[in-house]
């Protein structure tokens, strides 16, 4: 059961002019499962993406990077579940390439105009022939109001489909933003990966979109952790169709701040949904670190807390175990940290300051916060003005159960 | 139940001439528990230590560093369990100092000649008066053949006492080495910490001992991980009494290589015992990384594998889940790693090469190794001659149970 998350209804997800989506059952690994999704883009879109830093990155990630760098206009995205096409070497790259060629043939575009994505079992060959056989069905399913189905089409072990949408009026034009994501651990290499796709009918010049996708990922998908593992296939791709008539080429353009904020908000919602559906999660935790010298050190502290199995089991147990949080701050890697200047709150309760427990702190106040399904851990490092958030979940019996039983 | 580990019998632990140990029940936090240990050293010893890098380091760690740097001859170590004296600020330092003064008075030495160690609950004040009251009993218990009792005296949630001993003949002199350690997670801040103490009757000049304790810790306590957390109190201290008559001042001295190897072997045994008794551990895993450009990158890969909850739950499940191991290699932080050159073995079974599964690999061979209680994961990075080992355990339901239920 996800923590305070339900998939929006189909009617709540705005179509994005210039984007059509289709979903079908291609029996890639199992029957009776929507496992193939196609996103067709009109001419005139800009597309940008960020991808896993894992050196064992999957074949489709390699092809995506190549096609985005190739300079041809991207006109389609194809996503399969079931098989991740990772750890598959040169045959894997050929399979991803063959998938792009099949999509290109169907849509009358070049293979270099297609971005492929795969998620599922690692080390198994991608059955290209099943994807080829399934493509006519996804093609005939293509329509603009299909985001809800597409959110389901990219799921693997997710317990809920993840989607988000916003509309706003900018410079007199109505702008739509819709996105979908999948993932329930940061990685589950047998049925793997975090994927995210966002489209807007705003027009965004390529350099601005390249910058935005990185900023949005840093504020969203790069702030979440379930188990600290980084998948071979992680991808976040952003599409701007321009069909709303509102177009942007520079950070200083009127209305850009609003569009950017809305796109980042949708990205954060898509990313947080992954944590809320984290494997075995019973609580959603925001670790807000402030008062750092730079963002980097705030993130280090946030991840030290967010990754610590000891902290995460304490959240599961609703135990206000301050020692574990302080210890994580202490080993986060800030070598010149003056711990006497650090303050820690659980929601509004000041729990630690001056190197130890706050004088006025009462255990029952900490216990009250820890019993909630949504918890804010706030850390003030007391040495600067930078801040960063990390979103995580607790660590339960079910995490072990899910990951120990996964292949059986 | 620890994995393939039992405490050596008292008769197997050699006395070390110049070292006497005493243990008593001081009721520091609970009754009927040996919770106070004193180690008295004859004049003429050298002493060196390595301590936690955690910025929230405990008061006794701060006092240890100060006394070791102070230049006075160290003549005693005092260790209490029950209360960690961490996160206690200035009152904590005063309590640790008062403990040293009480020990100094009892032994007729200066407070600056005493090293204090604490392990137990964080954020609680140290009851110095109980330590003072308990000191006469530990003083009257002081004897050379008391290592077995001392190993029990420093336990907290350990399920077994941890001790190791070696004797060897060097340059015609019989040399004894004995040590004890405690810890069952890398950190358990409520009843916390890794502690290790080793003594030899070899004579080792201070600069050589300072170097040795770092090398030995790097080969032992710095190679283990249960949950990746670093305690506020971790300490490893080495004592050389010189009473065997075999003395060393330089790496090139005859016999030094043998003594050094034996001391490192005892250190490794003490460190591995902590992993074998790791919280909820059912398996002991050696991650041996070779073929790296330097030791640092080998350790990065070893820790990426050894820390991954996904890898550790797969070990628990006896699941040869290669994707999780490959993914951990891929995200370990070697940015220019050529994954096609990486090979991975489970014991003698080659499981991965050329960026994917090895052609001859059979799942049943991997499953056979994963079912063992002792598993070797060997990774060849194929880019150099450096190597490093990391020792870890699996991640079971009981880990969550122990850490979620700990304070209840």
List the helices and strands and how they pair.
The structure is a homodimer of 408-residue chains.
Chain A: E1 19-24, E2 36-41, E3 46-51, H1 59-69, E4 76-83, H2 89-107, E5 114-121, H3 128-141, H4 147-153, E6 162-170, E7 173-182, E8 195-200, E9 203-204, H5 206-219, E10 224-225, E11 235-240, E12 247-248, H6 256-276, E13 284-292, H7 295-307, H8 309-316, H9 322-330, E14 343-346, E15 349-353, E16 356-357, H10 363-370, E17 374-380, E18 386-393, H11 397-405
Parallel strand pairs in A: 4-5, 8-11, 9-12, 10-18, 13-17
Antiparallel strand pairs in A: 1-2, 2-4, 3-11, 6-7, 7-8, 13-18, 14-15, 14-17, 15-16
Helix pairs in contact in A: 1-2, 2-3, 5-6, 7-9
Characterization of the model:
- The structure is a homodimer of 408-residue chains.
- Chain A is α/β, with parallel strands linked by helices and 408 residues long.
- A 7-stranded mixed β-sheet of chain A has the order 10-18-13-17-14-15-16, sandwiched between helices. A 5-stranded mixed β-sheet of chain A has the order 3-11-8-7-6, sandwiched between helices.
- The first copy, chain A, has helices at residues 59-69, 89-107, 128-141, 147-153, 206-219, 256-276, 295-307, 309-316, 322-330, 363-370, 397-405; strands at 19-24, 36-41, 46-51, 76-83, 114-121, 162-170, 173-182, 195-200, 203-204, 224-225, 235-240, 247-248, 284-292, 343-346, 349-353, 356-357, 374-380, 386-393.
- The first copy, chain A, has 2 domains: 10-276, L-amino peptidase D-ALA esterase/amidase, CATH 3.60.70; 284-405, ArgJ beta chain, C-terminal domain (Ubiquitin-like (UB roll)), CATH 3.10.20.
């Amino acid at each position: 059961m996800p923590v305070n998350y339900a998939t929006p209804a189909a009617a709540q997800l705005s179509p994005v002019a210039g984007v059509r989506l289709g979903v079908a059952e291609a029996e890639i690994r199992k029957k009776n499962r929507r496992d193939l999704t196609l996103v067709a883009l009109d001419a005139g879109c800009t597309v940008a993406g960020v991808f896993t830093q894992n050196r064992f990155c999957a074949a489709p990630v390699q092809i995506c990077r190549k096609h985005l760098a190739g300079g041809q206009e991207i006109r389609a995205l194809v996503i399969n579940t079931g098989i991740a096409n990772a750890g598959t070497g040169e045959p894997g790259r050929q399979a991803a390439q063959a998938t792009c060629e099949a999509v290109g043939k169907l849509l009358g575009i070049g293979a270099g105009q297609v971005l492929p994505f795969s998620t599922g079992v690692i080390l198994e060959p991608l059955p290209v022939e099943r994807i080829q056989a399934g493509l006519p069905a996804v093609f005939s399913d293509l329509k603009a109001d299909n985001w809800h189905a597409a959110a389901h089409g990219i799921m693997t072990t997710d317990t809920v489909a993840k989607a988000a949408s916003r509309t706003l009026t900018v410079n007199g034009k109505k702008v739509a933003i819709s996105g979908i994501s999948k993932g329930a651990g940061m990685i589950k290499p047998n049925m793997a990966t975090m994927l995210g796709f966002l489209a807007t009918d705003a027009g965004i010049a390529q350099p601005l979109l390249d910058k935005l996708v990185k900023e949005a990922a840093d504020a969203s998908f790069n702030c979440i952790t379930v188990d600290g593992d980084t998948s071979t296939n992680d991808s976040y791709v952003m599409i701007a169709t321009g069909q709303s008539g509102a177009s942007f080429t520079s950070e200083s353009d009127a209305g850009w701040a609003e569009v950017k904020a809305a796109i980042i908000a949708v990205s954060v919602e898509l990313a947080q949904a992954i944590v809320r559906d984290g494997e075995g999660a019973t609580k959603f935790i925001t670790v807000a670190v402030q008062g750092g010298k730079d963002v980097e050190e705030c993130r280090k502290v946030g991840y030290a807390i967010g990754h610590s199995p000891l902290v995460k089991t304490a959240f599961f147990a609703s135990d206000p175990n301050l020692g574990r949080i302080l210890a994580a701050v202490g080993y986060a890697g800030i070598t010149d940290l003056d711990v006497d200047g650090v303050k820690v709150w659980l929601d509004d309760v000041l729990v630690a300051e001056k190197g130890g427990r706050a004088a006025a702190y009462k255990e029952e106040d900490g216990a009250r916060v820890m019993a909630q399904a949504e918890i804010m851990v706030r850390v003030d490092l007391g040495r600067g003005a930078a801040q960063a958030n990390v979103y995580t979940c607790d660590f339960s019996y079910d995490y072990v159960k899910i990951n120990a039983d996964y292949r059986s």
